Amino acid sequence: MIRTVYVHFGKRTGLPFYVGVGNSYRKNSYGNRSCEWKAKRKSEGGLIISFSELTKEDAFKEEVRLIKLYGRIPEGGTLINQSIGGYGSTKGITKNKTWRLKLSKSLKGHEVPDIVRHKISKSLMGNTINKGRVHSEQSKRNMSIGALNRKK
After folding, report:
1. Which residues form the domain of 65?
2. In a domain, 21, yes or no
3. Residue 39 falls within a domain, yes or no?
4. At residue 131, does pLDDT exceed 70?
């Protein structure tokens, strides 16, 4: 399968802000992009340099090389890439403390509606993965402590 590796550069700064792999039209696509990418693309505009006609393996290797070369923002670089590139989109993703606190705050007090609970329950009926499983005494104690500490 033929792939393209592309690098988005900011017009104002001239610095790269994103490296990606995809088919020939992915470099211009706004679909399935992070909020950071969309904001950066909107504020910076963008010049795109791409390397086309690469095999999937070569494209992933080049993506990893370029991300390592320019560096991601958490590592002092200029790229907003969340992962280190290559196979799989989640390799090397770092979530900073601010992100974790924001997520935690957004989920506090979140209640799952009864209809959703019912759908989940129904989908799990017949699931026998843990049927007959015997928990160790330590596991039982840990589950008991966890249940006591859980908010009602």
Report:
1. 2-96
2. yes
3. yes
4. yes
